[in-house]
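Subject: design request, 356 residues
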C-alpha cells in the first residue's frame, strides 16, 4: 500500500492506494465517527463490492442506499433519495457516509454529506479509474442541472480516500479508457515526463497491469493533492485541473448526460484546447498531433460530436463555472506538457475551432 496526504491543515486526509484494501477494515474504521454509517452505491457496483464494506461496518448501525447507475441520474431528484433514507435510518451529525462507486456516486454522496444537518463526515471508496485519479480527491461534490454539468454543489472534503486497485478488474474497457483521459490530463497540465511515461506504458495500462496502474494512479493523485492543498476552492491554480473540461462539459450537456462518458468528452475537450492554443500561436501543429496521438492510443475519441453546432457550443460554454462577470476562462497549452488558465484568447480563434 502507498499513502499520500492531502495537506489541508486540520482537515488533511490520507489517500491509500493498493490491492486488497477493501479487506483491511481498520483503514476505513479509523475515519468513522459515531455509531451510524450509510453506504451509498449503485445497482452495478453494490452486487460486486457491498459485502466487503458490510464487513467493515459490521460494528455500526448501517444503512445501504442503492442508486440507479448512470450520469443521467446525477440529479437533485435522486439526491433526495439519499436524504430520505438517511432520515428514515435516523442518521445524525456523527453519522458517516461511505461512497462506494464511480464519480457519480462519489459526487452525490459528498454533496449529501455537505448538506445533511449542515455537514457530516464521508469516506470515498472509488471503484472506477476516473474516480480514483480525479473526482474522489479534492472535495468537489454536486449534481448536474439540465442547463449545465455540476452547477449545483459544494466543497466538502472526505475523511479518507481508499483506492483498491482490485476493483478495476470489473471495470469495462470503455470506462477504463475514460479514466485514462484524466490521467493524461495531468501530463498536459505540467508534466511532459509523465506524458513520455504514458506513451511508453499505455498498452500496459489498457491491459490492466497492476504495477503500471498503481504508478499512474499514485502519480495522478500526487499531482491533484498538491494542487488542492495550494488552492482548495479554485481561486487560481486549481483551475488548471479543468483542462478540456469546459469543452467537455458542453459535449456532455449538449448530447444528454450519459450519452458521452465524462472522460470521453474531456479527451475531445483537450484536443479542442490544443487546437485553440495552436491558433493562438502558443503551440505548433505537431504538438496538436502529439496530443491527438496519445489520446487515440488510450482508445479515446479526438473529434467532437457533429450533432452540436458551433452556436450550441458557445451557448453551453457560456453557462460554466469558469465564467465570472460574463468572462470565460479556459485552460490552454503553452507547450506540450505545460498549460495556463487564461481569459486572454482570441474569440475569433475560438469560433474557428468550434466551427471546424
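Subject: RE: design request

Done. Sequence follows.
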Amino acid at each position: 500500500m502507498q499513502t499520500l496526504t492531502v495537506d489541508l491543515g486540520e482537515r488533511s486526509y490520507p489517500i491509500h492506494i493498493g490491492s486488497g484494501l477493501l479487506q483491511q477494515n481498520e483503514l476505513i474504521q479509523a475515519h468513522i465517527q459515531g455509531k451510524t454509517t450509510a453506504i451509498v452505491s449503485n445497482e452495478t457496483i453494490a452486487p460486486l463490492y457491498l459485502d466487503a464494506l458490510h464487513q467493515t461496518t459490521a460494528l455500526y448501525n448501517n444503512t445501504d442506499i442503492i442508486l440507479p447507475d448512470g450520469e443521467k441520474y446525477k440529479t437533485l431528484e435522486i439526491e433526495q433519495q439519499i436524504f430520505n433514507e438517511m432520515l428514515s435510518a435516523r442518521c445524525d451529525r456523527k453519522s458517516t457516509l461511505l461512497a462506494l462507486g464511480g464519480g457519480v456516486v462519489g459526487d452525490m454522496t459528498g454533496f449529501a454529506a455537505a448538506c445533511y444537518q449542515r455537514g457530516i463526515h464521508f469516506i470515498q471508496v472509488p471503484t472506477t479509474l476516473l474516480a480514483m485519479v480525479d473526482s474522489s480527491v479534492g472535495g468537489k461534490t454536486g449534481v448536474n442541472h439540465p442547463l449545465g454539468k455540476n452547477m449545483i454543489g459544494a466543497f466538502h472534503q472526505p475523511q479518507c480516500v481508499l483506492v483498491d486497485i482490485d476493483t478495476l478488474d470489473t471495470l469495462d474497457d470503455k470506462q477504463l479508457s475514460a479514466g485514462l483521459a484524466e490521467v493524461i490530463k495531468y501530463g498536459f497540465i505540467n508534466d511532459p515526463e509523465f506524458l513520455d511515461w504514458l506513451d511508453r506504458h499505455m498498452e500496459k495500462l489498457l491491459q490492466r497491469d497492476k504495477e503500471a496502474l498503481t504508478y499512474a494512479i499514485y502519480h495522478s493523485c500526487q499531482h491533484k493533492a498538491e494542487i488542492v492543498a495550494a488552492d482548495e476552492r479554485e481561486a487560481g491554480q486549481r483551475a488548471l485541473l479543468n483542462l478540456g473540461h469546459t469543452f467537455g462539459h458542453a459535449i456532455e450537456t449538449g448530447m444528454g448526460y450519459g450519452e458521452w462518458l465524462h472522460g470521453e468528452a474531456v479527451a475531445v475537450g483537450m484536443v479542442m484546447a490544443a487546437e485553440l492554443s495552436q491558433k493562438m500561436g502558443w503551440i505548433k501543429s505537431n504538438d496538436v498531433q502529439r496530443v491527438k496521438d496519445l489520446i487515440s492510443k488510450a482508445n479515446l475519441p479526438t473529434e467532437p460530436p457533429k450533432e452540436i453546432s458551433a452556436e450550441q457550443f458557445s451557448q453551453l460554454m457560456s453557462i460554466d463555472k469558469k465564467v465570472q462577470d460574463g468572462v470565460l476562462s479556459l485552460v490552454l497549452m503553452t507547450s506540450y506538457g505545460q498549460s495556463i488558465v487564461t481569459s486572454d484568447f482570441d474569440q475569433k480563434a475560438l469560433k474557428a475551432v468550434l466551427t471546424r
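The radius of gyration is 20 Å.
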